[in-house]
Amino acid sequence: MSRWGQIRQALAIGPSQRSAGVERPRLGPPVRVHPLLAITIACWLALPPAALGYSPTRDLGFQGPLIVEFLRDGRSLRVLEEFNYVDGTGRDWIVPAGSVVNGASIPRAAWSIVGGPLTGKYREASVIHDVHCERRERPWQEVHRVFYEAMLESGMDEVQSKIIYAAVYMFGPRWDLPLAAAAPCDPSGEVPCARSLGLQPTAAATTQPFDETLFEEVAAFIEGENPSIATLDGFAEAALERHGSW
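The structure assignment produced for this chain is given below.
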């Protein structure tokens, strides 16, 4: 039965309960439903899954293994095959084959505290983050947020993931507008990119000098409270403002 047929039956406005002499179960007296409510339900059920913020036909998370080679400089990796992460809303975060990453989007001064980005559990997440900090086709807040989400997907502890996220949120790259990078826009067309918005390339991303005392203050807050990401963002911004940063 079609979804509209199911709706009609549920609202007791369907066809007669007798057809071709076949006795059908009686469902009781009709239920009176306001016409606007019926229309609202019908429209909601008719929406495509993507409009509701999810894609039931796609797997979320990392799409296949990360295949890389170590470069001779001793600190960089080249991605040999396209790598992709699908976030909780169904958006792709693609790393093209041939991308070279070195963990530069993670403040190097924080490595001694949170660990190197290319050797630990959050290696795949840091590759996604590196590439999209370089491409800058989406707001910096979204790029840092998907880094956190991907760390959890990698099996990282929630508190540790928030501490690493705080490091990039406070001292990682920020940019004002999406960059019209050489790479194509999102093929789905669901996420506006610089060229589709008619924007000019932004200047190079800016970073805040790493402040260990400030970072330890925020890390202590995370360890003590395990705040939501929204609360953590607010706390980090307030801490940066107190210290005259950004």
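Interim note for the steering committee: The longest strand covers residues 83-86. Residues 3-8, 10-20, 50-56, 191-201 have pLDDT under 50 and may be disordered.
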